[in-house]
Design brief:
8 strands, alpha/beta
């Protein structure tokens, strides 16, 4: 919960909607978000609970989101359902950021749907890992100093792409990302080790 809230804080997203598919795990995550939100300057304007884990009709929820215009959606639901929800929000013109507790593996099919989504505990598929190795001549598990330098350059690239122009703006953007996830666990390409990642614009394993 803290990672998602730190991400919201770093993006100045103060108005949020919490959406949860009800089960013991996701209910706990959502309760943590609710208890910590105020400390990150985030106001929850709605707490939506979905009883059916197979629900695919989100028309009522999306209609409310369009009226509420939140800055960010905290999404806690099972992966297939989450993919359907994220896809439909984009199709319906919902522009809020989405922070999603995942623990799942992305591949080239799901990246177009997830682009722009901040995900916790993300993993790269074996196929994407293979493309990464083919492109760079190595797997993504490399020496710490090399990985740190690679991640640092990735973060700088993300900051510039997000609109940072001065050194102070770049530093502030990097700090916001690093506060959300460790440098060893973050990469704009993804990682088999897991970690937190905003899927910003990668088309393939080499972004």
């Amino acid at each position: 919960a803290a990672q998602e809230l730190e991400f919201a804080k770093g993006r100045n997203a103060t108005k949020a909607v919490l959406i949860t598919t009800e089960n013991a795990y996701f209910n706990k995550v959502s309760e943590n978000v609710k208890s910590l939100a105020a400390g990150y300057g985030v106001t929850l304007v709605d707490d939506v609970r979905i009883a059916n884990p197979d629900e695919k009709d989100f028309s009522t929820v999306i209609a409310k989101l369009k009226a509420q215009k939140p800055d960010i959606i905290f999404l806690n639901m099972l992966y297939p359902q989450a993919l359907a929800f994220i896809k439909k929000t984009k199709e319906q013109g919902v522009t809020a950021l989405i922070a999603y507790t995942s623990g799942q593996t992305i591949n080239e099919t799901t990246i177009p749907i997830l682009r722009g989504t901040y995900m916790v505990d993300l993993k790269m598929s074996e196929a994407m890992s293979a493309k990464f190795k083919a492109e760079y001549g190595r797997a993504d598990e490399v020496a710490p100093s090399t990985q740190t330098a690679y991640d640092a350059m990735s973060l700088i690239g993300v900051a510039i792409k997000a609109g940072a122009k001065t050194s102070d703006e770049i530093a502030a953007s990097m700090k916001a990302v690093i506060a959300s996830c460790s440098s060893r666990g973050h990469s704009v390409h993804g990682t088999k080790r897991g970690g937190s990642l905003q899927v910003i614009a990668p088309q393939t394993a080499n972004g």
